[in-house]
Amino acid sequence: MDSDVKCPNCGSEHAYQDGSLWVCPECAHEWSSEAAGAGDADGDSLVRDANGNPLADGDSVTVIKDLKVKGSSLVVKGGTKVKNIRLVDATDGHNIACKIDGIGAMNLKSEFVKKA
Question: Which DSSP state fits 50?
Answer without folding.
Answer: T
